[in-house]
Specification:
Elements: H1 2-17, E1 25-27, E2 30-32, E3 34-37, E4 49-55, H2 67-76, E5 80-84, H3 101-117, E6 121-129, H4 131-146, E7 156-159, H5 164-171, E8 173-174, E9 177-178, E10 187-190, E11 194-197, H6 198-205, H7 209-213, E12 220-225, H8 233-243, E13 247-252, H9 263-277
Parallel strand pairs: 4-5, 4-6, 6-7, 7-12, 12-13
Antiparallel strand pairs: 1-2, 3-5, 8-9, 10-11
């Protein structure tokens, strides 16, 4: 497991640092590295289209599966996307040890404001994978409840949304690290490599994930691999219960948590959903 995770993280490091750092948007930890993908032949000065904000999982990157494949699939359907690295992740500014889910929601809201500012964007959707799924769901709820942005999400896709992270922080076992949940250390090392700070643990313990997500009442697609060994199926089922009839849960047979076996299928499902609802 540790060797696989190391290779996965090394790939993210290489992919990100092959790209120049350009920061048009900032979150709590500083500049956010992002990539905008437009439909082929799209003229940003004269054309218009919807846009989806793509959010990766913990320790991952905008350039790691499944994000690039989803951006490509969306573009084929005439939908723009912006994918970005959360603060403290790879080519974005900040430190991993200062990461919290609340900080990532703030990053996502900053990207929401950016998307709203683009004159060619007609509607905005949100998509998140793993921890990014938790962030996307809570961001959608915040946008609706705050009511200050002029736009509401037109669609929401959650891929293996990792609400189990709250349970893990309360139980003192997070991604290979063990700790005292009542008095956690300054940091822990997840998978023996990545530093996660005390504030992440304590703040995640208190999150009202489903309650924050619930104000969003638009269409939802939830995708979960049947062979996911990191995020249990009950997480997606609980999100389905939260959203009720507005949500559809799709189980992809033999898919893992990283969405590395049936990447194109998952990307096509997401793109089709947004094409239908935006």
């Amino acid at each position: 497991m540790k060797r696989t995770v190391f290779v996965f993280l090394l790939l993210g490091f290489i992919c990100d640092f092959l790209h120049a750092r350009e920061y048009e948007v900032s979150g709590p930890q500083g500049g956010l590295s992002m990539t905008v993908t437009l439909p082929k032949g799209f003229d940003a000065e004269n054309d218009s289209c919807p846009m989806v904000i793509l959010m990766h999982g913990i320790f991952s990157s905008k350039n790691i599966t499944p994000m690039p494949a989803i951006a490509k699939a969306l573009a084929k359907e005439g939908i723009a996307s912006v994918r970005f690295n959360f603060g403290g992740h790879w080519s974005s500014e900040g430190k991993m040890q200062r990461m919290t889910i609340e900080n990532e929601i703030a990053d996502a809201l900053a990207m929401w404001e950016y998307a709203c500012s683009l004159p060619y964007v007609t509607e905005i959707g949100l998509l998140g994978h793993s921890q990014g799924g938790v962030v996307a769901s809570m961001t959608a709820g915040r946008v609706v409840s705050m009511g200050k942005y002029g736009k509401r999400p037109s669609g929401l896709v959650l891929i293996a949304p990792a609400s189990v992270l709250k349970n893990a922080c309360n139980n003192g076992r997070l991604l290979g690290a063990k700790f005292d949940p009542v008095s956690p250390p300054e940091f822990i090392r997840c998978f023996g490599v990545m530093k996660v700070g005390r504030e992440y643990i304590l703040s995640t313990q208190k999150l009202d994930i489903y309650g924050t997500a619930k104000p969003y009442e638009g269409p939802v697609m939830i995708i979960h691999g049947s062979k996911d060994t990191l995020v249990p199926m009950w997480c997606s089922e609980e999100f389905k219960n939260t959203y009720g009839d507005a949500a559809e849960l799709i189980v992809v047979e033999n898919e893992n948590h990283r969405i590395s076996r049936k990447t194109k299928k998952v990307a096509a499902l997401a793109a089709s959903f947004f094409k239908e609802n935006m």
